[in-house]
Structures are given as structure tokens and as C-alpha cells.
Design goal:
about 190 residues
Length: about 190
């Protein structure tokens, strides 16, 4: 998305107001609203174009190998727009990799897939850090506002548990497993009739 000079002026003014609140003129408010509407419309148009391109890509992929040139050109275009190849794209590219364009696109898609996997794994690694080991900083108006005189020092250890809130024992947190019942010693026997 590219901004014109007038849009950049409005954006700069909006950012300045966000960082340093001050009285705002009605003209500034209207300019900001118009800019927001323009950005929303551009985002909607981008989403419509993306949906059209992806539907087109699926049609070309379904008609392979007869549409190889069109499919490869369209795949290259949607990759530039941020599209990530799916398994069908990899299968199509492997079938077409005899050509240099398809081989280059297959390698590019492999690199993108590896980047996505690494990003997901890095996100999981961060998310898997136990809550007790992450350091959270309070925002203005949060819990720090309740205790204005108490500010943690850098490198300070966490506070010990409050005496009015005892730490539960493992038996309270993890109840004991039930043992399976024993079968009766002498099961009742049924007599067959007749």
C-alpha cells in the first residue's frame, strides 16, 4: 500500500496526536476519518484481488499440464503478494520441475516453507516457556497502580507467596488416581434352561 503526500501528512499528524495528545481541530478529525476509510477500502480491495488470484491459481493448477506457463506466472505473482504455497502447489511444481522456471519456483517455495516452519517453531519455543519463568511488566493503570510504592528492581527475585494464600500441595492439585476395583471372588453362575 502506498500513501500520497496528502495522506502522509494526515498520517504524520495522527501519529503526532497519538504520541502527544493535544486539542484536535475538526478538520484534523475529518482528515483522519477519510484516511481510515481509504485504508479500509484499500484493504478490502486487496482482499478481493487476493481471493480472485487464488481462485485463478486453483483453476490453472487443476488444468495442468496444459496451463503450465499461465500457472507458473500466476504462482509467481501470488508469491510476491505474500501467498504461501500449499501441498497442491508443491505437487504441481514437482510434476513441472523439468523446466527451469518451475524448478526455480519449487526451490523458492521450499525456502518459504522452511521459513514458515522455523517461525512456527520459534513461536512455540517462546510460547512453551512456563509462565512462572517469563517476566511480565505492568502497564500504567494495571496492578502496578494498586501498589504505587512497590516497584520491582531490575534483577529482583519474585516475591514469596502471600501468607493469606498458601501454596497447594501436589495432592490437592493432582488428586490420587482411582484404583480399579477387584472382580468378585465367586462370580454368580447362571444355569442354562432346558
Amino acid at each position: 500500500m502506498a500513501f500520497g503526500t496528502e495522506e502522509l501528512r494526515v498520517l504524520r499528524r495522527a501519529l503526532a496526536l497519538a504520541l502527544h495528545p493535544s486539542p484536535v481541530s475538526a478538520e484534523d478529525v475529518q482528515d483522519c476519518l477519510r484516511l481510515a476509510e481509504s485504508i479500509d477500502e484499500a484493504a478490502r480491495e486487496g482482499a478481493r484481488l487476493r481471493a480472485f488470484l487464488l481462485a485463478d491459481l486453483a483453476r490453472y493448477r487443476a488444468a495442468l499440464p496444459g496451463t503450465a506457463a499461465g500457472y507458473l506466472a500466476l504462482l509467481e505473482e501470488v508469491l510476491r503478494s505474500g501467498y504461501r504455497p500449499d501441498p497442491d502447489d508443491f505437487a504441481a511444481l514437482r510434476a513441472l520441475r523439468g523446466g527451469p522456471v518451475a524448478a526455480a519456483l519449487l526451490e523458492r517455495c521450499r525456502v518459504l516453507a522452511e521459513q514458515d516452519v522455523r517461525a512456527r517453531l520459534a513461536g512455540r519455543a517462546v510460547a512453551s516457556v512456563p509462565q512462572s519463568r517469563t517476566r511480565l511488566l505492568a502497564l500504567p493503570g494495571g496492578r502496578a497502580a494498586e501498589e504505587p510504592d512497590r516497584r520491582p528492581e531490575p534483577g529482583e527475585q519474585p516475591r514469596p507467596p502471600r501468607p493469606d494464600r498458601p501454596i497447594p500441595t501436589p495432592g490437592e492439585v493432582f488428586p490420587p488416581r482411582r484404583k480399579p476395583g477387584h472382580p468378585p471372588a465367586n462370580p454368580p453362575q447362571q444355569l442354562a434352561a432346558g
